[in-house]
Amino acid sequence: MGIMLDQLESLRLSLLKAVSDAASMGELEEIETKFLGRKGELTAILRQLGTIPVEERKVVGSRANEVKMEGEAAIADRRQVFATSAHAEIADTDWADVTEPGVRPPKGHLHPVSQAIREITKIFDHVGFSRVRHPEVDWDWFAFESLNMPKEHPARDEWETFFVDAPETKQGRMVLTPHTSNSQVRELLLGELPIRMINIAKCYRRQIDVTHVPVFHQFEGLYVDKDVSITHLRGVLDYFAKSYFGPDRVTRLRPHHFRFTEPSFEIDVSCGVCGGTGLLNGAKCRTCKRGWLELGGAGMVHPNVLKAGGVDPKVYSGFAFGWGIERTASMKSGTKLDDIRILYKNDIRFLEQF
Ligand code: DAH
């Protein structure tokens, strides 16, 4: 027994010395295996247990256990020392100041046309015009016929229409809506009067040049109730011009002709650059025509249109208007776009300015 206890003591001493001399985690690992591993020195000593009397085995066994625990504790302590200094090294070389402001990811914004759509929607919402949706691919009947434009009527020529290659029905051929006015009769047919709607949608015309894109947007207003007059139209137009363009802007109605309104007007808004005078520093204002900018069409809904929508023109009357969003938006920002197509070229240098 004495020999084995001596062996254990010398193992203990060499183990502790080796641990305190170890210079790295790796060395510690080797030491652990060498002394305490399954095929290590401690196991080798314990293998001799069978050669000594039973009552002595207990003493040697428990001493071996103590040595093992002491060795393991020493190794764990030394590991801790290495780990701490490794952390310290990382902290010295690879640190982050968590109080430093972060790097903001680049943030975009809505396209100027989307901005205009949102703003216009809000302005009309304040006076009870709800935004509605109607098809952007529709039957000839809604785009023309029901708007008092029979099949062969020359007025149709103004709307350079794309026809869809689809079978003709009782409502005629299918078209890509060349204006948002198809929503008028569609809304009337819903039969919920009075109507105060704003329909903002894509329109398509076979035109492309510096002032036209083949896909553009319009917003269409329709107000139908009993006793609606031009005064109401005026009021709404002025309200819109002041809300959208600024409080000092005014509108004027110019006689015009549309098949679906009677009387019909072209709406102008006073020029924001020359203040409606047409003169800037003694010279002609280059933004407008004699102080006015053309906004778009409007008028009192034609009785035939009301009839097509199942509404009795003797009881009800209404007004409508329809303008291009791209045009209205560029009039607001005062940007003279040499070429309107730039709006849709996705050139970030242009878009970032809005
Ligand atoms: N739809 C017409 C166009 O595209 C614009 C228009 C004129 C709409 C008069 C209207 C209106 O609602 O009353 O040119």
Provide an overview of this structure:
The protein has 354 residues and is of the alpha+beta class. The chain has 2 domains: 2-93, Methane Monooxygenase Hydroxylase, Chain G, domain 1; 112-351, Bira Bifunctional Protein, Domain 2 (BirA Bifunctional Protein, domain 2). Helix content is 40%, strand content 23%. It contains 11 helices and 12 strands. The protein has helices at 2-21, 25-36, 41-47, 54-93, 112-126, 140-143, 182-189, 230-245, 303-308, 325-333, 348-351; strands at 130-132, 137-139, 162-169, 172-176, 195-204, 215-225, 251-258, 261-270, 279-280, 283-284, 292-301, 317-324. Strands 1-5-6-12-11-8-7 form a 7-stranded mixed beta sheet, sandwiched between helices. The protein has a 3-stranded antiparallel beta sheet with strand order 2-4-3. It has a two-stranded antiparallel ribbon with strand order 9-10. Helix 1 packs parallel to helix 4 (54-93) and helix 2 packs antiparallel against helix 4 (54-93). It is elongated and about 125 Å long. The chain starts with a helix and ends with a helix. Bound molecules: 3,4-dihydroxyphenylalanine (DAH). 3,4-dihydroxyphenylalanine binds next to strand 11 and strand 12. Residues 179, 181, 220, 258, 261, 296-299, 320-322 line the site of 3,4-dihydroxyphenylalanine.
